[in-house]
Amino acid sequence: MPSEGRIWVSDAPSLEDLHRLDDLLDQDNIERTGIQDARLLAVMLRSADGDLYAGLHGHSWGGCCEIKTLWVADSHRRQGIGTRLMAAAEKEAARRGCTQIVLTTHSFQAPEFYEKRGFRRLASVDDDPIGYSNILMVKRLER
Prior knowledge:
Layout: H1 15-33, E1 39-46, E2 52-61, E3 64-72, H2 81-95, E4 100-106, H3 111-116, E5 120-126, E6 133-140
């Protein structure tokens, strides 16, 4: 029987611990499913001096791409950059053999942006955060 360790709660875990936890979960997922094609996905835009002003990240695994984060700096919004980032991610997801993209967004973050790009709402959790909804969306990719 394994010994019990002390539970540690933090709002500032090390990046090393977070990466290790992700790696351990990935290993467990591979063992349970046999699907071994997990890959990170990042699409970034930087200024000439190297400052990040827009980006997207997520991963692909088992024919599905999940977008975890999409962000564009205020000064660069409404210029088609988000659309360009999503198009690049969709193209790469399709190249990797993905048949769909999933993501979550909040009601205040512009779910309409995703709907205009072919995503549909699957589920919504109200009051996440209080007064807003957390929305699960999916888009099937053409092959």
